[in-house]
Design brief:
This protein is α/β, with parallel strands linked by helices and about 400 residues long. The chain has a single domain (about 15-60, about 85-410), classed as Rossmann fold, CATH 3.40.50. About 30% of the residues lie in helices and about 15% in strands. The protein has ten helices and 20 strands. It has helices spanning about 50-55, 100-110, 165-170, 175-195, 230-250, 275-285, 305-315, 335-345, 380-385, 390-410, and strands at about 15-20, 35, 45, 65, 70-75, 90-95, 115-120, 140-145, 155-160, 200-205, 255-260, 265, 290, 300, 300-305, 325, 330, 350, 355, 360-365. Strands 8-7-6-9-10-11-16 form a seven-stranded parallel sheet, with helices on both faces. α5 links the parallel β10 (about 200-205) and β11. α8 packs across α10. It starts with 16 loop residues before the first strand and ends with a helix. Bound molecules: nicotinamide-adenine-dinucleotide. Its EC number is 4.1.1.35.
């Protein structure tokens, strides 16, 4: 896992555009290729090959494109193989927001582990396509439901993810975002209280706001603008955490809180306006990659399988304080733009031949956009035995492949 960058940086870019000619690129460090994910201590270990059949299948037998713009769906005969668990070991697990980006990968892994999984989703930002490979499986159930309304079911674990996570989506209807975080979390905590289920909240690094402490430890209380355009999400998650610990203290609910930092991977919504999906979509369309601000703001991106590993470990270990889950390797947004552009250019051929170049364009900074964001993951290492394994480059390769597959299938 050596950093092969050999030094860096020339960010002096006055004409507000950037190309590989006027910019010294820091190659994203290479790590050994990851072939297996998960952790044997909780039974989540699985080969990447098994996961690939779900989101990067060699062929997609369910959908046949016919002439005249018609499409035919056939039912899949065989489900992906999953582990056999005795009924005594099998958990009944509710995943709210399980049809979303992170939720669907979590569902894949929980299904692989042999558990019974119920997904509750209102499909605001998620889609059935993300979990279609499980529909009809005896261990799986998909329920269309909005968590703002109570939901009754008997379960032993609840992963509470339901909440739009990208700025354009959560700002589309800010009041609804607050309701989802507040009423949705009250409803799911009430369910956990009644059924004595263990409850895990997917909180966010956004609760730290524009941080004055760097990197951010879980003990940092944050620096959040309570009335800005991001407040519906940031403050919504802060109150969701408050509710979680109130139910723990007052009602003995067994809780876990994950503070998730930027995550990317296959099944990100192409319209979510997040950095990675934006850059990939723009590069695939041959459009300029747009950066808000000077591009020197830093982010740490983790690959989705690392996050899923962390969530499952957190749920199954005995630690109730909030835990940061994120990658500590920090890059400027400009670094990311170059890495993604180079990956797309290296692997994409258009009708006119190989793609040659796309511009990188700087636009005015977005309001309340944090300058720096990087997790301190000492807690996760110490109490979960977790740290990210994926190099950003491997994750980007898979994500670009997935977006290209979607494009070929006409899904985006
Ligand atoms: N992806 C990230 O980088 C990131 C970072 C920090 C925190 N998180 C948290 O992780 C969780 C999942 O994020 P994601 O990136 O998969 O987002 P996503 O938008 O892809 O998934 C959210 C899912 O919740 C569903 N949903 C939204 N409102 C709902 C409601 N009222 N009732 C029922 N379902 C509802 C959506 O339809 C979607 O399927 C969120 O709680 C988010 O705050 C994600």
């Amino acid at each position: 896992m050596a950093d092969q960058s050999g030094g860096f940086t020339n960010h002096t870019n006055n004409n507000r555009t950037s190309s590989s000619d006027d910019y010294v690129i820091r190659p994203v460090p290479q790590r050994d290729h990851v072939d297996n994910v998960g952790d044997t201590s909780v039974g989540s270990d699985v080969s990447l090959r098994w996961l690939h059949q779900l989101y990067l299948p060699k062929k997609t037998p369910e959908v046949v494109m016919l002439k005249d713009g018609m499409v035919q769906y056939t039912s899949q005969r065989l489900y992906p193989n999953v582990r056999h668990l005795s009924p005594a070991k099998r958990e009944r697990i509710l995943v709210t927001g399980g049809a979303g980006f992170v939720g669907s990968h979590l569902v894949d892994r929980l299904m692989w582990m042999g558990h019974e999984v119920i997904v509750v989703d209102n499909f605001f930002t998620g889609t059935k396509r993300n979990v279609q490979h499980w529909i009809g499986h005896p261990n799986f159930e998909l329920v269309t439901h909005d968590v703002v309304d109570p939901y009754m079911i008997e379960v032993s674990q609840i992963y509470h993810l339901a909440c739009p996570a990208s700025p354009p989506h959560y700002q589309y209807n800010p009041t609804k975002t607050v309701k989802t975080s507040v009423m949705g979390t009250i409803n799911m905590l009430g369910l956990a209280k009644r059924t004595k289920a263990r409850f895990l909240l997917t909180s966010t690094s956004e609760i730290y706001g524009d941080p004055e402490e760097h990197p951010q430890k879980e003990t940092y209380w944050g620096h959040v603008n309570p009335i800005g355009p991001r407040a519906c999400y940031d403050e919504g998650k802060r109150i969701a955490e408050t509710l979680t610990y109130s139910y723990m203290r007052q009602n003995d609910v067994d809780v876990r809180v994950a503070r998730i930092f930027n995550t990317f991977g296959p099944r990100m919504s192409p319209t979510d306006g997040r950095v990675v999906s934006n850059f990939i979509m723009q590069a695939l369309r041959g459009q300029p990659l747009t950066i808000y601000g000077d591009g020197h703001q830093t982010r740490s991106f983790q690959y989705v399988h690392d996050l899923v590993d962390g969530l499952i470990l957190l749920m199954n270990k005995n630690y109730t304080e909030p835990v940061n889950l994120g990658n500590t390797e920090e890059y400027t947004i400009l670094d990311f733009a170059h890495t993604i552009r180079d990956q797309v250019l290296a692997t994409t051929t258009t009708a006119a031949g190989p793609m040659t170049d796309v511009e990188i364009k700087l636009l005015p900074a977005a309001m309340d956009d944090p300058r720096k964001r990087k997790p301190d993951i000492t807690r996760a290492k110490k109490y979960l035995g977790w740290e990210p394994r994926f190099a950003v480059k491997q994750g980007i390769q898979e994500t670009v492949d997935w977006f290209k597959l979607q494009q070929m299938e006409g899904a985006i």
